[in-house]
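Handout, section B. The chain below has 199 residues.
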Amino acid sequence: MKRFLSSFRSSALELRDLRCVLVTGLLIALSMIIEAHTIIIGFAKINFAYLATAAIGMLYGPVVSAFAGGICDIVGFLAKPDGGFLPLYTLFGVGQGLIYGMIAYHKLPLAQGKRYDISMAIRLSIARVLDVVIINLLCNTAANLYYGFIPDEAYTAAVTARVIKNVVLLPVDILLISVVLIAVLKAYHIVFGKQQRLA
């Protein structure tokens, strides 16, 4: 429990670092670019904007990634308003950031003398599975039903489509997050010349 709380304190302190603010801003902008290329199929949508949020969580922890997740939702709405602004979806963005920050922060050092460390891929895979189940399938589906974005008469078809989409894409998501985020971590160490600390 002490280590868990210390990751929140450490993450909050990251906000004092100009590098954290700049890199987080760049990743939020990248998330917006990816979000702009979302593919909508019926009641399901395909995009990979979660990679930017996951990278923020991995590099700077749950506090920074929670803020970034909320900002991504708000900026995304301002850039492309679609109906009214619904704060509940902003909370889901915050939750997504928390998931990646709690699981990946300070737990993905580059392995000494290794090109790839399987523990990195396992942690990132667990984070993605939790994001898909908790945020995509449970929270977003429930909110879409509550707000009437999924009509009652189309409930079964919509939920089935969302489940199928998430199950089919999950292996792709896991592969992407494992490869892309480890590349991001290595690039971060090369550019800034420091190793991520162990928690």
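Note. The two ends are 12 Å apart (CA to CA). Compare this with the example in section A.
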